[in-house]
Amino acid sequence: MVSSDEQPLVHDIRLSTVGPGRVTGQDVVHEPTNMDQAMKLHYLRGVYYFKSQAVQGLTTSKIKESIFTWLNNFYHTCGGFRRAESGRPYIKCNDCGARFIEAQCVKTLDEWLQLEKDDDGSLRRMLVSNQVVGPELFFSPLVLLQITWFKCGGMSVGLSWAHVLGDAFSAADFMNSLGQVMAGHQLAQPLKLAQSHISAKISPSPPKSKDPLSVKRVGPVGDHWIAANNSKMKAFSFNLTSTQISHFHTKVCGQIGTNQIPFFECLCAVIWKVVAKIRDGPEPKMVTISKNDPHGRKNGILSNGQLISIVKADFSIMEANPKELAELVLNQAMDERSTIVEAVERDQGLSDLIVYGANLTFVDLEEADFYGLELKAQKPAYVGYTIDGVGDGGVVLLLPGPKDGPHNGGKVVTLIMPEDQVLKLKFELKKEFSIA
Amino acid sequence: MPPPMPKFSNSVKLKYVKLGYQYLVNHFLTLALVPVIITLLIQVIRLGPDEILTLWYSLRFDFLQILGSSFFVILLVTMFFMSRPRPVFLVDYVCYKPPASFRVPFSTFMEHSRIILSHEPKSVDFQMRILERSGLGEETCLPPAIHYIPPTPTMESSRGEAEMVIFSAIELLVNQTGIKPKDIDILIVNCSLFSPTPSLSAMVINKYKMRSNIRSFNLSGMGCSAGVIAIDLARDLLQVHPNSNALVVSTEIITPNNYQGKERSMLLPNCLFRMGAAAILLSNRRSDRCRAKYRLLHVVRTHRGADDKAYRCVYEEEDPEGKVGISLSKDLMAIAGEALKSNITTIGPLVLPASEQVLFLLSLIGRKIFNPKWKPYIPDFKQAFDHFCIHAGGRAVIDELQKSLLLSPEHVEASRMTLHRFGNTSSSSLWYEMSYIEAKGRMRKGDRVWQIAFGSGFKCNSAVWLCNRSVQTPTNGPWVDCIDRYPMHVPEVVKI
Questions:
Q1: Is B391 annotated as catalytic?
Q2: Among residues B258, B424, B461, B468, which one is catalytic?
Q3: Bridge pairing between strands A80-83 and A89-92
Q4: What is the pLDDT of residues A121-158, one digit of tens each?
Q5: CATH for A10-193?
Q6: Beta strands in A84-142 (DSSP E)
Q7: Is B153 within 8 Å of chain A by CB?
């Protein structure tokens, strides 16, 4: 990616490390739950874009100072993985830290966002790290932050987040508390103190039950936590305005009234049909749905509390009525979380699974508070998220759109699909959503 | 054969014998004079009042002779007082405390090391072993430029670090003592490894708009013992200039000295040296006498540079790849031991009580004349000093001194805890240690403190201070937020 004057678009990259300002102490560990272990091969990559007014007067050293205060509350994200005697991974909270990357961009923020519109996702990759855990488990940071300064004074914050630490809702809370610390607010003390030594869990393995349908076994990946894909995955997104959304919603699910199927399920149905149409081979009869579980979330604690369910269709997808399919997704989704947890428990946490992309996966992140990261009381101009480590089934993310300005009420749909399907998908989806 | 006495009563008996001996020798003059005075008094009383009066009248000279002799006496007394050295007081001092965002935990240091020296796993392992046994804690700090992978030391970032630490320290000192920078008469800055043009002392003068007739000095290249050298220089200047004060700033700038190569003998400083600075205000003014914290009693400097091995044991040079680093030779501890012996031989007579000196003399004579195989008597310095500040050069240095001087763990606690909390801050470490003792509330009026520092050259310098007034536990200072966690047990080997 070199511009005409031979300077790379993003240059002057400097790496350092940030961590908690307070000493965490010796022998403090954090044990990921079974659900966390199931998600360990996935990584969230989010980019928050800020206009220059929001970051005026901010310097790297001021940001770093705030980060050291902020990470006092999240010291387990600054640790490194070790393996217990049984081989089960746990986090040693040794204050190793999160990677901090500084970069400069030759374009202004507006120019960049314009470039991204026509891009295939590789531009955004330059604003966030694509590192994974491993091959050396001990010294792999779990969180990587990239601060990129644009020519106009705008800034982007790139978060690279190991899914084993928590789901996208937790990641959003994590980032939002950085904004609070930078504004000078004190964070509430973490409710959970890190546990002490790992208890030797030798619970009897439950009787052999079926593997959950929403996951796929891969590997073994050893200490390099990324699964190999059969095909290269590419990400692309498109923004939907509120007009397009209501238009689409009415088209698929009928008149606006009571008992209306939510937009997410309608989206799932339509995209499911499109994927079934363009994919070679048998059409996908099962999809995985991931949504927020408001009851499962405790304030201030990072966890993988998202709802994961499977939807099975016993009729032809291509022929199906979108509204029927949407109703199926809404009403017939079966919660698979306990099955997943059991499967991981059976393998004592040693299994290597992927959840996103085992089947065609739809992730509802509408309720994620991505725009809650405020700098100088200003929300980001735009937030984009994608997932790495996705299986060949592909993933569709529904994200909230920008909160201020003319785009209020809009949403963003991001798809991560095998490379060879991207063009056809784009074509079909543009038709569906009447995008020019 | 009589049964052997139980060890306890044996040692108790020995203790009383020692105490008795010490009391006898140390108060010899008093004990000798008392019977003389008593005898005289008895004689005088026996003479009777009439005899005394007759004696008194016969001693009366005429007026001129009395005036002459009294002038003579006054002259002698004045000459005596004027020839005595001016007392040098330490009004106050401060230590720089780096912010938590400069912290370097062990795991971060090792992670960076693995990435930077990715082709040299043996060197990385060596660094890990050093770090595990170093005695440092997880709160020591490095300057921002060294936090980068790879470190980015530039002239600008070195100046940045210098400005940050030196100006913060001086700011603190100005607030604490109320001194105005324009009132400073003498300025001495010592920083061994960073010596820009204009000098760091010029940097201070520029920042604080000091007077044009200030006497400024910049000491560089003199190693970790330069702090004591600076104090010595200040003292000498304060003898020549009456009614003056001196600002001494001791620091070591880490940024330009990060070794980027793989030679093991040169990797040690990277693991041990950390950010720090101290600013000290000395004065010879009478008005400062009451509020000063300490009075400088002695400074003893020993230089072993004449010996080639000693000269080369801490040597800055290029490694086979052309990277500059400071190589430490394997004989460092032995040479340090020798230098220490030289130093205490000189300082012993100045500070040790008569009892110890006599014993030492006897042992010396005995070894020379009777039997050279007699163990040399190590004077008990614990009787001369109440507190010890041993330069926190590394765990090995503190262990070596503790063994040589027969000190208890409490005596070296300040040094060990300073090494743990701040690392090896070079010339300023002595001041962090003093600050620790004050923070623990152990500094009382009349206490004597011995500061010992080693440095390249090879030098061993020591300074002796007398506590002028009881120091209250400070409400600010580098130890204020963590003193409750100390002393803590520092394990021999830390598992990273």
A1: yes
A2: B424
A3: antiparallel
A4: 888 899 999 999 988 888 899 999 999 999 999 999 99
A5: 3.30.559.10
A6: 89-92, 98-105
A7: no
